[in-house]
Amino acid sequence: MILTDEHRELQRTVRNFVQQEINPCVDEWERAGAFPVHDLFLELGKLGLLGISKPEAWGGLGLDFSYEAVFLEELGAAHCGGVPLSIAVQTSMATPALANFASDELKAEFLAPAIRGETVASIAVSEPGAGSDVAAIKTHARSDGDDYIVNGEKMWITNAPAADFFCTLVNTGEGKPHQNKSLLVIPADSPGITVGKRLHKMGMRSSETAPVAFEDVRVPKRNRIGDEGAGFLLQMLQFQEERLAGAALTIRGLENCISHTIDHVRERKVFGAPLLDNQAIHFALAEMQTEVECFRSLTWRAVEAFVAGEDVTTLASMAKLKAGRLCRSIPDQCLQFWGGMGYVEETLINRAYRDCRLTPIGGGADEVMLGIICKLMGILPSRKRQKSSPPKATEQSSVGDAD
């Protein structure tokens, strides 16, 4: 995809923001295990960066998703993964369905302030017993006149401690698991909501994550996104954007691993010569950069198809899978070249090693991506293979994972 001058200008804006407003504070935020979400989101909102591809009627810029991808790719250059993840939850995980399928009333109440950065959004899908298997969620919303009464527990919820509202997938019926779910927007201050203790994670430490419990939480039915029972399909569509966002967010972080490692091995001397002079090392670094460029091409091919209105379930799943694979291999290879310094938590490569490990797990595990790709290739196990033509990609995507 060819980037325009407008894309490049947005790229410069985001790059400056990362360099001036995020990177100087990363070490402090990582130690604290949190960052000032509301303050940073307000600054992003003033620049229009929280609603790039959202409708102008609700304060967005009304641009296509390629501009969102530029934003996310450049955001990934931050010296940590937690802050970009929290921002991406706001822009690409908790609000796409709200922007695309909600009533005008809901958009005015929840989407518009989220675009301005006045509120923090969170996506609440995963549960203690249902991560990648979204169809298995147990959180239930019982009908009570004009309201739902919600009970259940969500787990691994990014932004939960700071959230003003949750985009929540719940069961609103007892029918088939792909047809009995609905997406509800639930204000975080609703009586009966309890946000648990912040989880202490291996990585993504500056991004706050916590469980959320719903006990007899009364939610107006007008807070439902789309039709009752359509929640599973809407969440699968939302996953397409989430996975493209996750892939784009990964690119610059992987390049950071490589560039910082080049700097380190150029300065580090072993047996009287720079470590970079070792052919095995500079060949490995060249191989890694080649892999990142191939991954970037795949991601942008998927973005271009998405902008054109195509079903990108296959390409988005492939990009997410490749992101997960590279996030396991590249930081690990680079850390090895740092030697003992790579084992010290304060180094950027150590942080990248820990942060990147989430990529092949969150937003749909690698194995889930492989399953989706296999289904769309028609290579199901014989006992599951059907003689009839395969359903649409969004109907096949019966598994996924979200924070």
From TrEMBL:
Q: Where is the composition biased (Polar residues)?
A: 388-403
The Acyl-CoA oxidase/dehydrogenase middle domain extends over 123-217
User: What is the E.C. number?
Assistant: 1.3.99.-
- Which portions of the sequence form the region Disordered? 383-403
Do you know which Pfam families this protein is assigned to? Acyl-CoA_dh_1, Acyl-CoA_dh_M, Acyl-CoA_dh_N
Domain Acyl-CoA dehydrogenase/oxidase C-terminal positions: 229-375
Provide any one GO MF term from the record. Answer: acyl-CoA dehydrogenase activity
According to its UniProt entry, one GO biological process term is: fatty acid beta-oxidation using acyl-CoA dehydrogenase
Q: Which InterPro entries match?
A: Acyl-CoA_dehydrogenase, Acyl-CoA_DH_CS, Acyl-CoA_Oxase/DH_mid-dom, Acyl-CoA_Oxase/DH_mid-dom_sf, AcylCo_DH-like_C, AcylCo_DH/oxidase_C, AcylCoA_DH/ox_N, AcylCoA_DH/ox_N_sf
Keywords tagged on the record:
FAD, Flavoprotein, Oxidoreductase
Q: Which segments constitute the Acyl-CoA dehydrogenase/oxidase N-terminal domain? A: 4-118
* Top enzyme category: oxidoreductase
* Gene Ontology cellular component list: cytoplasm
Q: Which cofactor does it need?
A: FAD
Record family assignment: Belongs to the acyl-CoA dehydrogenase family.
This protein's name: Acyl-CoA dehydrogenase
Species of provenance: Microbulbifer aggregans
Cite the source lineage: Bacteria, Pseudomonadati, Pseudomonadota, Gammaproteobacteria, Cellvibrionales
| Gene name of this polypeptide | acdA_3
